[in-house]
Structures are given as C-alpha cells and as structure tokens.
Amino acid sequence: MKMLAGRAFNKTYGTDTTQAMIVNESALKLFGYTRPDQILGQKFDQWGRQGTIIGVVKDFHLHSLQEAIQPMTMRIEPQGCYLVTVNVDAGANIPGILKAIESAWHAAFPVRPFSYYFLDEFFDRQYRNDERFGNIFLDFAVLAILISCMGLLGLASYSTLQRRREIGIRKVLGASTRAIVQLLTTDFVRLVALSFVLATPLAAYFMHHWLEGFAYRTSLTWWMFIIAGLTALIIAMLTVCYQALKAAIANPVKSLRTE
Q1: CA triplet 158, 243, 239: central angle to 5 degrees?
Q2: Which residue, 148, 169, 190, 210, has fewest beta-carbon neighbours within 10 Å?
Q3: Residue 244 and residue 149 share a domain
Q4: What does each of the 259 residues of the chain score in pLDDT, given as a tens digit?
C-alpha cells in the first residue's frame, strides 16, 4: 500500500493499537476532504473506540475489478487477527515449507486446525469465470473462422468453375491476371463488407453489455472494429485469391476447348 500522507502503523507508538486509524482515498473524499494532509490529526469515534487519523493510503483493489473501490478505514484490532501471512520464494521447496509452517502452527496453536491458501490463487479465482469465458469464446471464434474459410473456398471454387469460359474469353481478349483476380474477388469483398456492417452494431452492443459488469473497464473505440473488419477481409481474400489466381493463370485454350 502506498502512503499518500501521514504514516503507517508502527509498533514504536504504543497508542497505534488502540487510538490510530488509516483511511484510503475513497474515505477521504467521502468525509469531504480534497487533500490527504487535511484529514491528518482529525479525531474519529468508531464502534466504541476513539482516536486520531494518522495516515492516508492510495486506493487499492481488495476485490476484483468488477467491484468499485469502497471507502475504507483501517485499525489494529489485536483480538481480531485470525490470519498469518507468510512470504514464500516462488522457487523454494513449497511442500517442505508448508510442513515447517504447519509444525510451527501446531506448536503455537495446538487446539486450532491448520489450513492455508495461496494469495495469488485466491485472486485468480475472482477472474476464473472470465478466463473460462474468454477461452471458450476464442475456441468458437477460431472454429467459426475455419468453417467460414471452408465455405468461402467452396464458393470461390464454384464461382470460378461457373465462369471458366468467361475467364478464358477475357484472357484471349487481353485481360491481365490482375484484372481477372479483381473480377473474381470483387463479389466476395462486397459480401465481407456487408457482413462487417451487419456485425459491427451487434458486436458493439454485446461488448458494451459485457464491459458493464466491470467497475473499471476499457472503452470501445472505432479503430477496434476497423481492425477486426480489415482482419476479416484479409482472411477472406487469402482464402479466395488462391482459387482466383489459379483460374487467372490457367491456359485459356484448355478452358475454351472443354466448353
């Protein structure tokens, strides 16, 4: 926690365990102060205990980003301590350390059962549903893209086959490979553009609705949808251009002879 004004609790001050309080930024604003130093030295009367505010800490997230930071006051409650925090090196022998901690716990509190959890896992659980949703959404998005590419490839092959005679005649009359490819891909560009126009409002609506579940969230901007549209167009063109280029460089004599 970052101190904005005042000091933290200190065991050299005997009154900190009974007559000291620290508040966060949200509580500072709730009390009507604009600067952290203004609240230092102010008296408090809370739950039968009176004392002085000694410090202000910067707002920090006690819960997930789905919840807004609430006004908070902090006091030392000697009778309310029921957790022990231990810093453990990530590369250490975790099972061995846990056994040592358990032995020390039973030696100090023989009548209380030993239970523990890791703080990083505790916070990860708050976002587990969002991570699961993201993974499922990504899997279905990749599957939808693959199915769409297969459909586009089939449409491009069918369109090229149907227009094989036309392509041969155009090439005989002097049409370039670039012109043939452009001719065959124009219709698909229009379809992708139409799908982009239809999908953008729906995507914006559902994304906005999903982000409303977070108290702290990013904003949707126009360039995100432009990038998505360009990506869809590039994927579609890479799928279609193979068949279009194959038809454009084919020998027109063979296509006209078969017709």
Answers
A1: 100
A2: 190
A3: yes
A4: 899 999 999 989 988 988 999 999 999 999 999 999 999 999 999 888 899 999 999 999 888 888 889 999 999 887 777 788 898 887 788 889 999 999 999 998 899 899 999 988 888 888 888 888 889 989 999 999 899 888 888 888 887 777 777 777 777 777 777 787 788 788 888 888 898 999 999 999 999 988 888 888 888 899 999 999 999 889 888 888 877 777 777 666 665 555 5
Distance (Å, whole) CA 249 – CA 102: 75
Check if the beta carbon of residue 143 is closer than 8 Å to that of residue 135. Answer: no
Locus of tokens 């230092």? 40
Sequential DSSP letters for 46-82: ETTEEEEEEEEE----SS-TTSPPPP-EE---GGG--
Residues with Cβ within 8 Å of residue 123, at least 6 apart in sequence: 64
Query: What does the alpha-carbon distance between residue 225 and residue 232 come to, in Å, rounded to a whole number?
Result: 10
Q: Are residues 245 and 167 in the same domain?
A: yes
* Residue 33 structure tokens: 């102060």
Q: Are residues 71 and 136 in the same domain?
A: no
Domain count, the chain: 2
Identify the CA nearest to 240 among candidates 168, 157, 177: 157
Compute CA distances 15 → 9, 51, 93, whole Å: 10, 9, 40
Residue with tokens 């990506």: 231
Do 136 and 66 lie in one domain? The reply is no
For residue 251, the enclosing domain spans 127-258
Grouping H, G, I as helix, E, B as strand and the rest as coil, residue 106 is helix
Beta strands in the chain (DSSP E): 3-6, 20-24, 43-46, 49-57, 73-74
Residues 138 and 68 grouped into a single domain: no
